[in-house]
Amino acid sequence: MNAFLEVTGLRKEFLMHILNDKQIDALEDINFSMEEGEIIGLTGKSGSGKSSLMKCIYGTYLIGEGSVMYDSKTFGPIDLAASSEHEMLQIRRNEMTYCSQFLQVIPRVPALEVVAEQLILEGTDRSSAIDQARSFLDRLGLPEELWDAYPSTFSGGEQQRINVAQAIISSPRFLLIDEPTASLDLKTKNVVIQMILDMKTKGTSVLCITHDEHTLNNLADRELHLKNGRIQEAAVA
Ligand SMILES: Nc1ncnc2c1ncn2[C@@H]1O[C@H](COP(=O)(O)OP(=O)(O)OP(=O)(O)O)[C@@H](O)[C@H]1O
Ligand SMILES: [Mg+2]
């Protein structure tokens, strides 16, 4: 049986052209595998390479060396390190969602529309997608008067809730999520944790970067700890 995800010998370096091609070795020999339905918490101090690793898997960063075997629904087993742009786009459209630490939205699109967008793209009819978006924003405690407002002017915590809601509303097969609870209060953190656990029961596998002990302990099945671009330990959370 193939692992859901198997990362082998992954390296990523950055050449800083403005610093006379100074080389930064962000990831050195990363090896781990993930089972389907697992929630892995990716930890490590700032600059240890967490976001870079996630971006290598999602294809935002080209991988220098190594392989990322993913048992995709669309193509079957595929090495994401060697996949074409077309294959990567198909995978992103059909099964893999990346949620960055910061909200990136088009200006002048109301919150409800931003959250409902993915469902509509996947063919859910508009009114039912908007209803689901309402229910998500309600659970996340976003004040109702903001639902028709533009998220570009929202506070950090409000934007984070929009960001998380838009990524998880459609229950992707594989969710890559960077610091989903960083600027949330405990009550809202717990709602986000519960929402991700609900996705797990529907079969979603999750790689979640977090600095937050509470999130790690209540969400993750397993912890991967990065230190200086290498995986240090794989403890049970
Ligand atoms: N696009 C890039 N160009 C050059 N260097 C980069 C780039 N992306 C990341 N790096 C470098 O790679 C290293 C790891 O960065 P990364 O963003 O992966 O860390 P992180 O663990 O996510 O940190 P944080 O917890 O602060 O988000 C850092 O030294 C960073 O400066
Ligand atoms: Mg980061």
How would you describe this protein?
There is one protein chain. It contains seven helices and ten strands. The chain is an alpha/beta fold. It has a single domain (5-233), classed as P-loop containing nucleotide triphosphate hydrolases (Rossmann fold, 3-Layer(aba) Sandwich). The strands form two sheets. It has a six-stranded mixed beta sheet, sandwiched between helices. A four-stranded antiparallel beta sheet has the order 2-1-4-5, with helices on one face. The longest helix has 16 residues, at 186-201. The model has no long low-confidence stretch (mean pLDDT 93). The structure holds adenosine-5'-triphosphate (ATP) and magnesium ion. Magnesium ion (MG) binds at residues 50-51.
SSE arrangement, N to C: EEEHEEHEHHHEHEHEE
| Structural shape | globular
Low-confidence stretches: none
CATH topology: Rossmann fold
Structure characteristics:
binds adenosine-5'-triphosphate, Rossmann fold, binds magnesium ion, globular, alpha/beta, 28% strand
Question: What is the element layout, followed by pairings?
Answer:
Elements: E1 5-16, E2 22-34, E3 39-43, H1 50-58, E4 65-72, E5 76-79, H2 85-94, E6 96-99, H3 111-121, H4 126-139, H5 156-168, E7 174-178, H6 186-201, E8 205-209, H7 213-219, E9 222-227, E10 230-233
Parallel strand pairs: 3-8, 3-9, 6-7, 7-8
Antiparallel strand pairs: 1-2, 1-4, 4-5, 9-10
Helix pairs in contact: 3-4, 3-5
Bound molecules: adenosine-5'-triphosphate and magnesium ion.
